[in-house]
Amino acid sequence: MELTIAQKLDALLKLQSLDSQLDELIKIRGGLPEEVRDLEDDIAGFETRIGKFQAEIKTLEEEIERNRVAKKDAEKLITKYKDQQMNVRNNREFDAISKEIELQSLEIELVEKRANEAQFRVRGKEEEIKTTSAALNERKEDLKAKKQELDQITSESQEEEKEIIKQRDEQATTIEPRLLNSYKKIRGNALNGLAVVMVKRGACGGCFNVVPPQRQADIKDKKKIIVCEHCGRIFADVEGVPEPAPTGRGR
Ligand SMILES: [Zn+2]
Fold it and tell me: What are the start and end residues of every segment in region (Disordered) (predicted)?
């Protein structure tokens, strides 16, 4: 049985409405997986940085330990030299040992200075770890919330999505293949996913270009399928009474 143009347009409009509902569901869900991935990337980056700081601290602590041992050795030598000084036979020997003691004292000063510098850098790294950890924890909290949101939206919308897809597929069978193909093609090219639109306030509901009054009258007549001359979308009907649009805000 051949459908009238009005029936065909009605079927197309129903299909469009179901497809738009699906688009909306996917849009709501859409941004979240990407946000979750971004957060996971951030977290991995922060963890790498913290690991690097910890490795640097370990190296610095080894340096501090080496300096501590060097200081102990120098102190032992000084004690030994001071003992030797008690038993010198002449001033020359005494002076020579004094020089050694002086050298070891300088060595102690040097290793203490190095240890202090290393200690200072350790504190800097610890500070960086603190800041990075705070940012890391913040991201982890965000991630937890986003994941929960995503799970909830996904499970909620999956049932709904299945139901709409079922209705959409049924609806599609009521439309002749040639018309359905045009519909799919127009929809594929439209950024907002609209292939079938109404004339609203004298303008195309898809691209907002003005539709002349005579054309609006033809669309209302539904003797044939009329598409927008600007964007190619199919006009289903005119909302309200056909009226001239004073301004078009179209492209
Ligand atoms: Zn248009």
Answer: 145-169
**Gap from CA of 64 to ligand 1 centroid (Å):** 75
Ligand 1 centre to CA of 17 (Å) is: 17
C-alpha 173 – ligand 1 centre gap (Å):
26
Q: How far apart are the CA of 206 and the centre of ligand 1, in A?
A: 5
Q: Over the stretch 183-236, which tens digit does the pLDDT of each residue have?
A: 999 999 998 999 999 999 999 999 999 999 999 999 999 999 999 999 999 999
Separation of alpha carbons 148 and 104, rounded Å: 64
Q: Is 138 exposed, middle or buried (0-12, 13-18, 19+ CB in 10 A)?
A: middle
Helix (H, G, I), strand (E, B) or coil at 234: strand
pLDDT category at 251 given cuts 50, 70, 90 is very low
Q: Is the pLDDT of residue 29 over 90?
A: no
Q: Cα separation of 26 and 44, whole Å? A: 28
The CATH class for the domain spanning 30-162 reads mainly alpha
In one-letter notation, the amino acid at residue 224 is K
Query: What are the residue boundaries of the structural domains of the chain, listed by start?
Result: 30-162, 177-238
How far away, in angstroms, is 205 Cα from ligand 1 center? 7
Q: pLDDT tens, 146-187? A: 999 888 888 888 888 999 999 999 999 999 999 999 999 999
As given in the structure block, the two tokens for residue 150 are: 């995503």
Expressed in angstroms and rounded, the spacing between residue 177 Cα and the centre of ligand 1 is 23
Ligand 1 center to 229 CA (angstroms): 7
